[in-house]
Structures are given as structure tokens and as C-alpha cells.
Prior knowledge:
Radius of gyration: 17 Å
Number of domains: 1
Bound molecules: 2-oxoglutaric acid
Largest sheet: 7 strands, antiparallel
Number of helices: 7
CATH topology: Jelly Rolls
Number of strands: 11
CATH architecture: Sandwich
Amino acid sequence: MELTQSQIDQYNDAGYLVLPDVFSAEEVEVLRHEAAEITREHRPEIWREKSGAPRTAFGCHKYSEVFRTLSSDERLVAPVEQLIGETLYIHQFKVNPKVAFDGDNFPWHQDFVTWHEDDGMPEARAMNIAIFLDDVFTTNGALMFVPGSHKRGMIPTTPKENNRRWMDLADVEAMITTGSDIEVATGRAGSVLMFHGNSVHGSAGNMTPLPRRIVYVTYSAVSNAIQRPTRPEFIAHQTFEPVHATPPAAFAEYAESLRT
Ligand SMILES: O=C(O)CCC(=O)C(=O)O
């Protein structure tokens, strides 16, 4: 899947890009089912909300064949490779279920500041690409972006609760002064969202009865591998094997075989 010049321009301008309807309804159904199966397990890679509902399932491509197969799908690897211009490895893989009624917020932040300060990633030559497993509306915990914020580079911040490097509120206030300084990444289930490591983003809690499950893969250029990991391996991977993109049919056929 090649990005068009207009999509590249859109990404370079805003720091994020939504690609509608990339994965089929059948593939999404398999991913939803697998997300439900793995988040029933109790293991250190699965972090929970205060209520006990799953918040983040880290590194599940290491123990789930469904997510392992997905992690090299060309529809995810190729557009990131195109933007970064180099062979990639997987820095992080996770599912954020943002469950109905209970899914808590993610305060404003940039991802690269954590990759740099806590993992020792040299440069912002890494990015997230995400698959919506549900229709994502403005109301059920969609990601919000400050368009163009990636152009400001890394904004230093001090660790907050759970060592998360949420932005200092004074920096957020300086950046968001009117409603039009925020854009919301919505889309149908099966759509894909890509965003720059320095893109300022966050998401509100999900108080609706509509779940908002999203799978995130963070790919980094192989030459940009992390140098000083301080977080567990399941959060910041410490093996840097190049990802070889597999044609969409590999995942589609595997998903189909699980449905029959
Ligand atoms: O899933 C979300 O709502 C936001 C996730 C996020 O920004 C993160 O995990 O860094």
C-alpha cells in the first residue's frame, strides 16, 4: 500500500493521517475476538484500569499468532517504511481496548519524549500506526491531535504518575488556545491512523456504551534502535530484527481460516 503524494503532504502538514477502510470487516472481527481472548488473561503485559478492565495489552504479538501475523502486514509496514525511508523493527506493540463506560483518558503527550528519555531512542525516526477495531467517534475516546505540533520537535517534560511523560499543563495551554487547535481522528472500524512521534495527542475517557478498541504498532528505523532501555522488554523491545512485510493476503487468509 503506497501513500499518494497528497497523503504524504497531509501527514507532513498535520503530523497524522487517517486511511479509511484498510482492513475488512472479517479481519476486524478476528482481531476483536483475539483482543477479547488475550485481555481475559492475567499476565504482567496486561495493564488494567482501576475497575480491573483492560487498559493496555503490551507485546501481544509475541504470544498471539493473530497479532504476530498482523505485525508484519504490508498495509502497516509499507506506509511507515515509505515515510521513514528505511527498514523497520518493532519498538512496541499494544492493544488499547478503551472499554465502554470505563476506559480512562490518556493526557496530552508526545510519544518520542518517552522513547528518547526512557528507552534511549536517538531520533524521532519511529512512528505509530494504529488499526481501529471499532467505529471511532468523537465521543468514545478518539485520539485528539494538535495539528502541526510535530514540527515543534520534542518538548521536554518531567515524569508524572506511573512515570508517564505527560506534557506540562503550561505547555498544553500555550499550544491550545481555541477549539480549532484540536483535531479528532475518527473513522470506521478497519481504518488505519498513522502519527508522528512528536505529534501532541491525547484522548478522553470513554463514558459511552461503545467500545473503542485500537491496535498500535510502533515501528522504528533499524538504525535508530534504542540504546538505554529502562522499561520492561514487553514495553520497549530490545531485539531489533528487521520486519519483512508480508502481503495482505497472508493475514486475510489466516483470519479467514480462523473464521471457518
Ligand atoms: O489509546 C489511546 O486512547 C491513546 C494511547 C496513547 O496515546 C498512548 O498509549 O501513548
